[in-house]
Amino acid sequence: MPDDLRSLVQDVPLVTDRVLLELANSMVVAEDLTKFRREQTISRTLLARIIGRERQRELLTTQALIDGQHSLVTWATELSGHVQISDLALSRVADCVGETRRQLELVSGRASAQLTALADVVAQVAEACEERFVCVEDRLSALERQQTTTALRLEAEEGFELSVGRWSAGQSYARLPWPLQVILLAMEVAAGPAGTYSFLAGRDKVSERLVNTILTTPRPGAPQGRFTIAELIDEACNTTPPDQLQLVAEILGSGLEPSLTQPASPLIAVAATAVELWTLPGAARPPHPAETAHALVHRRHGQWTSRTSNPRHFVERVVAEQAAAARTLRERLDTGVMMRQRRQGDPNPAGAQQAPTTPLLP
């Protein structure tokens, strides 16, 4: 204790009581300030959390002041035996300290309850936001799929109309006989956007439209009744210029490695083999290439096709076989892509695109 304070205590003994009471009073003031800061509404607490951390530092500073004053009062009480402090003053201070402690515990309990309520509100808000975000993401994904489907559908329709329109106007395959025109047109549509859309949609309505378009479009040399398929193909090849016939044979896979050719199908395989045989020099060419092709296809692939047909059945078979071959090729390509992505460690291989749900080429 400083000498001047010691001298004052000797002159006025009650000074020590006042000093101790002053310490207790300052502690009550600090406790009231802390209580005011803590007893705020949830909204104000949220605002305090948003506007920065300085608010938290102020509360911690005030609490530290209270703790320090508690310690100081304890220290002063312990030293009371060394100074002139009355029992009455000590009792008053002890009562004040006890009441302050009870108030602090009450405020602390309220603050804890408010924080618990605040945490519940924040959790509910977060859960509601998460549900909204998931809903928005789902709707956005659905919208993107719909846009992709619409774009594919429009592209398929445009591709189909372009291919069929050019053929109907005599701008494509015009120099070829009717059977070869049908085979190449069906192959073009199946390999184009319309075939891609049909593959992704998982259903095929384009083939029926193509069949009807071919049958209703007049073409020179188109058969009217029943015919023998071998004779129809041989006659068509016999009237085709050699350079055009060679081009058709190459388009149908002549000279390609087996891994690059399209899957074998009965009627298309017979036609492709017959055209390839017709491109051979006269001495190497069999007398009836289409009949020979028919036997070769049966021997190589175990496939057999009827010898006679009519225009509708012929066109339907050609269109169906070309569509099936294109679909098989796309499935193989998708499988190859997925396998490569898995080998490269891609956790989400793209694979086949999701099938559109919009009706195909209505």
Strand order across the biggest sheet?
Answer: 1-2
User: How big a fraction of the residues is strand?
Assistant: under 5%
- The percent of residues in helical segments reads over 70%
Specify the number of helices: 13
End-to-end gap: 102 Å
Mean pLDDT: 77
Tell me the major beta sheet: 2 strands, antiparallel
Number of strands: 2
Which shape, going by the Cα principal axes? rod-shaped
Give the ordered list of helices and strands.
HHHHHHHHEHHHHEH
Alpha-beta content class? mainly alpha
- Radius of gyration, CA atoms, in whole angstroms: 47 Å
- Contiguous low-pLDDT stretches (5 residues minimum) are 350-362
Outline of the structure:
This protein has 362 residues and is mainly alpha-helical.
Keywords, separated by commas or semicolons:
two-stranded antiparallel sheet, 362 residues
Topology:
Layout: H1 3-11, H2 15-38, H3 42-51, H4 54-78, H5 87-168, H6 178-191, H7 193-201, H8 206-216, E1 227-228, H9 229-238, H10 242-251, H11 266-278, H12 289-301, E2 308-309, H13 311-343
Antiparallel strand pairs: 1-2
What does this structure look like?
With about 350 residues, this protein is mainly alpha-helical. The chain has 13 helices and two strands; from the N terminus they run H-H-H-H-H-H-H-H-E-H-H-H-H-E-H. The protein has a two-stranded antiparallel ribbon with strand order 1-2. The model is unreliable at about 350-360 (pLDDT under 50).
